């Protein structure tokens, strides 16, 4: 429920921006349908499959491990927000390799940072991200997973935000506090603008900085980044949803 409320709150805030309202008003119906289906799959169907299938699968192969590990709440949060973020960095970077990018390419058809498009993907490509398997496993193993679930929730909210047009002004004190370590919307905008070159992290800039894939934002605003963004694919809506491989 909190995630749903956050989504609509972010969406309402983005509508306060005239440029964003203009962009959404001109967005083709095919993109609205693709984004709506993708949000439904990633926000509802995949979590449901995690509960009904993945966790039941773990209960079959490791039944004695269920809720058998104790970890203090702060450690759980660090595990979910930091360690899993590092796994995500490598899986996301792998999806930008020549071999795997066709699986991920639909996500990079977005032409402007738009939180409604944050889940745009071929419906089965999410299975290549670690969240589907690792989150279920860790929640299955932990005796009390509230700290880990909080980390998951924060990551989800940041995912919405970094795909949105809700940037923080560079002159604001909050930008100074967050910019050195957190992936901001303008950082992820550069990832979409310079596809495959960097900013692969989800939460933290640390991994990109360590591995030499950090792209520093030197542009004055997000609109500059959005200019010329998005790849063009000669694919039907059906292909984008189910089979983008050509």
Automatic annotation (TrEMBL):
Main location: membrane
Organism, as annotated: Synechocystis sp. (strain ATCC 27184 / PCC 6803 / Kazusa)
Residue span(s) of domain Fatty acid hydroxylase: 77-213
Gene Ontology molecular function, alphabetical: iron ion binding; oxidoreductase activity
Highest taxon of the lineage: Bacteria
Transmembrane feature ranges: 41-62, 69-89, 123-142
Keyword Transport among UniProt keywords: no
Name of the protein described by the UniProt record: Sll1510 protein
Compartments reported by the entry: Membrane
Residues spanning the signal sequence: none
Pfam families: FA_hydroxylase
InterPro entries: Fatty_acid_hydroxylase, Sterol_Desaturase_Related
PANTHER family on file: STEROL DESATURASE
A GO CC term attached to the entry: membrane
Keywords: Membrane, Transmembrane, Transmembrane helix
Alphabetical GO biological process terms: lipid biosynthetic process
């Amino acid at each position: 429920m909190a995630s749903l409320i956050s989504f609509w709150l972010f969406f309402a805030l983005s509508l306060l921006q005239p440029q964003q309202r203009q962009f959404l008003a001109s967005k083709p119906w095919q993109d609205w349908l693709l984004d709506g289906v993708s949000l439904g799959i990633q926000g509802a169907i995949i979590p449901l499959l995690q509960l009904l299938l993945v966790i039941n699968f773990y209960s079959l192969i490791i039944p004695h491990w269920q809720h058998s590990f104790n970890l203090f709440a702060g450690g759980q949060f660090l595990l979910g927000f930091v360690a899993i973020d590092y796994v995500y960095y490598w899986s996301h970077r792998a999806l930008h390799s020549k071999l795997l990018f066709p699986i991920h390419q639909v996500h990079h058809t977005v032409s402007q940072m738009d939180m409604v498009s944050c889940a745009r993907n071929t419906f089965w490509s999410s299975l290549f991200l670690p969240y589907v398997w690792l989150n279920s496993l860790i929640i299955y193993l932990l005796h009390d997973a509230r700290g880990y679930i909080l980390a998951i929730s924060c990551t989800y909210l940041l995912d919405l935000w970094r795909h949105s047009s809700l940037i923080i002004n560079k002159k604001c004190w909050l930008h100074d506090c967050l910019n050195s370590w957190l992936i901001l919307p303008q950082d992820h905008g550069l990832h979409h603008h310079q596809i495959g070159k960097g900013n692969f992290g989800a939460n933290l800039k640390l991994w990109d900085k360590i591995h030499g894939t950090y792209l520093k934002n030197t542009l004055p605003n997000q609109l500059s980044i959005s200019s010329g963004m998005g790849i063009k694919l000669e694919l039907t809506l059906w292909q984008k949803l189910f089979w983008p491989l050509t």
